[in-house]
Amino acid sequence: MNAPGRADDTPSQLLALAVAAAREAADLVARGRDGAGEHVGTKSSPVDVVTAVDAASEALLVDRLLGARPDDGVLGEEGASREGTSGVRWVVDPIDGTVNFLYGVPAYAVSVAAEVDGVVRAGVVLDVATGELFTATSGGGAWLTAPGRPELRLAVSGPSSLELTLVATGFGYRAEQRAAQGQVVARLLPRVRDIRRFGSAALDLCAVAAGRVDAYYELGLNPWDHAAGALVAAEAGAVVSGLGGAAPGEPMMIAAAPTVAAEFLDLVEELHR
Ligand code: IPD
Ligand code: CA
After folding, report:
1. What pLDDT does residue 8 have?
2. What is the pLDDT of residue 3?
3. pTM as predicted
4. How far does the centroid of ligand 1 lie from the alpha carbon of residue 45, in Å?
5. Are the folds of 7-153 and 162-271 the same?
6. What is the pLDDT of residue 10?
7. Can you give the pLDDT at residue 44?
8. Which of 18, 45, 118, 224 is a plausible cystine mate for 93, CB 3.0–4.6 Å?
9. What is the CATH number of domain 7-153?
10. If you take atom 15 of ligand 1, which residue's CA is the nearest one?
11. CATH no. for 162-271
């Protein structure tokens, strides 16, 4: 059983801490861009890179989150893993879109989610290059704060058919998995409006939320890739789902505008059989 929750465990209070930590981490990531190529290692495959900035960003996030709430747990892409006792666990991706970060392609983000008793209740995805801040709390909607613009409540698009559906997707880092994912995309492409591959799952999910694409799917994500973005998409009205009754992200993450969600899910399922 979890220890009694703290008085400040409301989603909006958790979000405020997540936003403050993400803003600091995003500043660190932005400052690190010029030297991004200097200390680069690899993880699951030669193309799965990690920079010193990923590690520094994660260390900063963990420091700020657990500094404020020492009884919480944490899970991070670069190895942070700690059981807490408060019932709250932070799921962080210090740079989602590391390959974009390395090359200077402006689509990489800091992602921070707060789970309460295993359910994501607050999430923030901060696009480092554009400064766009996507936030959501469960039941509180999804919001976009962009520099110099008023805060905007996000709502998904409403494509009228699958053939007019703009689809984002991504690919894993193992060659074998990519070969299979490529075959699926080849069969999907003639059935939809077009395909986009932005290179950050967190931003893909926020793109669904903002109506910049109509649907997104990806196989084999990790929790830190989708924890915050999936809440943003869901709170903007997307249908967020796995395949065949599985939970979203386990192992398939799908987010789609409700007008085409059922058809899109069927198609993704058919193509992965
Ligand atoms: C990756 C990105 C990418 C997705 C990969 C992820 P990383 O995360 O989200 O878009 O296709 O599956 O691993 O490595 O840049 O943090
Ligand atoms: Ca990631």
Report:
1. 59
2. 45
3. 0.96
4. 13
5. no
6. 95
7. 84
8. 224
9. 3.30.540.10
10. 97
11. 3.40.190.80
Name which of 60, 50, 41, 263 is nearest 159 in CA terms: 263
Query: What pLDDT does residue 2 have?
Result: 40
Calpha distance 110→108 (Å, rounded): 7
**Ligand 1 contact, 51 CB (< 6 A):** no
Which is nearest to 201 in space by CA: 225, 228, 233, 167? 225
Q: Is the CB of 229 under 6 A from ligand 1?
A: no
Cα dihedral angle (156, 159, 165, 168), rounded to 10 degrees? 0
* Pocket residue to mutate for ligand 1, from 108, 111, 200, 226, most atoms within 8 A of Cβ: 200
Query: How high is the mean pLDDT of the chain?
Result: 95
Report residues of the chain scoring pLDDT below 70. Answer: 1-8
Domain definitions of the chain by residue range: 7-153, 162-271
Backbone angles phi, psi at 211, to 5 degrees: 75, 20
